[in-house]
Structure formats: C-alpha cells, structure tokens
Amino acid sequence: MQRSKIDVWVGLFVLIGAAAILFLALQAANLLNLSLAPTYRVTATFDNVGSLKPKAAVRSAGVLVGRVESIAFDDKTFQARVVLALESRYAFPKDSSFKILTSGLLGEQYIGVEPGGADENLADGDVVTRTQSAVVLENLIGQFLFNKAAEMGGESQ
After folding, report:
1. Is residue 27, in this structure, part of any structural domain at all?
2. Among 27, 53, 75, 131, which is least packed by CB within 10 angstroms?
3. Domain shared by 83 and 27, yes or no
4. Which residues cross the membrane (predicted)?
C-alpha cells in the first residue's frame, strides 16, 4: 500500500515535469501563443522578408503588440504579403511604418512598428505600404566584397 502511493506521486511528478518541459520548448520555439486578446488584421507588403516566419513577434518600442499570422507571395506585384494580427488594445496611425528587424546580430527576425502621425488609425483589413524589407547578411557581405574589389581594381591602374 505504501509503495503504490509513492509510485503514484513519482508518476505525477514526472508527468508535471514533462508538461513543463514541453511548455518551455513550445514557448522558446515561438509556437505557443497564449494571448486571448482580440486582434485586428493588417497586411503589409515587403520586397524581401528574409527568414521571417509565421508567429514571429510584432513589436513597437520593444513591446509585443501582435504576431505574424501568415506570409505569402503575391504573383502580381512580386512581393511578399505578410498578414499581421495586432492586438486591438494597440491602435496605430494609418501612416505607421513596418520594418523587418533582427534581434541581435544573428537572432530571429521580427517586425518593428514605428507609429506615424495620422489622425486615422489602422483598421481590420488595411494594407500598409510603408515598409522596409529585411537586411540580408549575405547581400551586405557581397556588397562589401564587391566594393573592396572595385577599390583594389582602381588602385592597380
């Protein structure tokens, strides 16, 4: 009798530990969204989204204000269409700009919102065109090497 009580408690402890590890793994991978706040959807168009992924954070002044809902390619404009789910308690002016930023040097990408000054706020279904695409590290390195090669070629003549 005493042995089976201990086994039940050990089993319960193991299950709680496994659930906690699963919860932390989902949170770290950005796959778990526990926000039940009402949202409104805004679409932003970008020339290059880099490695932005669905469920990535949308931040303004460092505060989480929403998440990336989906990313699709628009074959008419040849741009990426990113649907953002912004929490309804955060209202941004219509002329706000959206940038794809990176947390740290090689960290994950997220969308940063810089509020504008318009009197009207973004509403559900609006399309934002004031965007800045992701800075791709490979393109920067390639441009740097090309400029250095051009400088070296100019010196040898």
Report:
1. yes
2. 75
3. no
4. none
